[in-house]
Amino acid sequence: MTEHAFHQHEADSPGSHQAAHDAGPGLSGNGDGQGIRDAAALWDERYRSKPQIWSGKPNPQLVREAGGLRAGHALDLGCGEGADAIWLAQHGWTVTAVDVSTVALERAHGHEKAALARESVHAAEGAIASRIHWRQADLEEWQPGEQYDLVTSQFLHSQELAWQKPLKTAAAAVKPGGTLLVVGHHPDRLPPWGGAHPTHEMFYTGEQLIQELGLDAPEWQLEVQTSRERPVTGPEGQQATIADVVVRASRLP
Ligand SMILES: C[S@@+](CC[C@H](N)C(=O)[O-])C[C@H]1O[C@@H](n2cnc3c(N)ncnc32)[C@H](O)[C@@H]1O
């Protein structure tokens, strides 16, 4: 696929606040050691292709859904260049942010340091201190080993990673009383220039998420299950409206 096949909020894309995320480079050999190495190598390559891939702004559904939560310990799965983790930290959260790409994580850490430097001048913007732990791991295998007040995963779409397993890991990592927030591109509302995408299987509807993660079980309270439209601008300046699947659920105490 081309770099722009499916992505809107890259740093140089005009007029859109947030991404229509490209799912990254293709991969063969998923499920064996080669696949795991390739996931990191291919995402590193993609990130290296530009100085900045994403907009640097937090995802709007995160801001909307987590903005009213009491800060605690958060886990961000597939954190990319770190804008969501930094936003959470600026709002009082201690964050563990996981991604397979060391290039993305180095960039994220750089953005964190820049935010810290700005805060030393403009303290009113918030203090993120050292509350973000950037962690390189492959979500095909990684298990957190602890539970969190908030687990968020935004647009974890990747040709070499089936969403079911990492998002089940996400759900299992929510503390009793904590919140799960999963956001993705609606499979039926992808932008027209995403034609290079080989499959819809990397995307999910709210219904599929709920069923696969067992969020209809008595231990969960479903707070939000919706699809929200969002205007995006394509690589050639084309306009389109896509939709984000948003599922927010609380694990009952
Ligand atoms: C479409 S990007 C979304 C990034 C970020 N959440 C955002 O909204 O800007 C998908 C991210 O998933 C990461 N990723 C892909 N496969 C992964 C894997 N197997 N384990 C961990 N992260 C992975 C990529 O490196 C990339 O940063």
Instruction: Name the average pLDDT.
Output: 84
CATH superfamily: Vaccinia Virus protein VP39
Low-confidence stretches: 1-19, 23-36
The assigned structural class equals alpha/beta
Radius of gyration (CA) equals 17 Å
Cα-to-Cα separation, first versus last residue: 45 Å
Element order, helices and strands? HHEHEHEEHEHEE
Going across the major beta sheet, what is the strand order? 3-2-1-4-5-7-6
Task: Give the CATH topology.
Answer: Rossmann fold
Q: Please report which band the strand proportion falls in: under 5%, 5-15%, 15-25%, 25-35%, 35-45% or over 45%.
A: 15-25%
Give a structural overview.
By secondary structure, this protein is α/β, with parallel strands linked by helices. It has one domain: Vaccinia Virus protein VP39 (Rossmann fold, 3-Layer(aba) Sandwich). The protein has 6 helices and 7 strands. It has helices at 33-48, 60-66, 83-90, 102-121, 164-172, 206-213; strands at residues 73-77, 94-99, 132-136, 148-154, 174-185, 220-233, 239-251. The chain has a 7-stranded mixed β-sheet with strand order 3-2-1-4-5-7-6, sandwiched between helices. The longest helix has 20 residues, at 102-121. It is globular. The N and C termini lie far apart (45 Å). The structure holds S-adenosylmethionine. S-adenosylmethionine binds at residues 19, 21, 39, 43, 54, 59, 78-80, 99-101, 104, 138-140, 154-158, 161. S-adenosylmethionine binds next to helix 1.
Essential attributes:
seven-stranded mixed sheet; disordered N terminus; Rossmann fold; single chain; binds S-adenosylmethionine; 7 strands
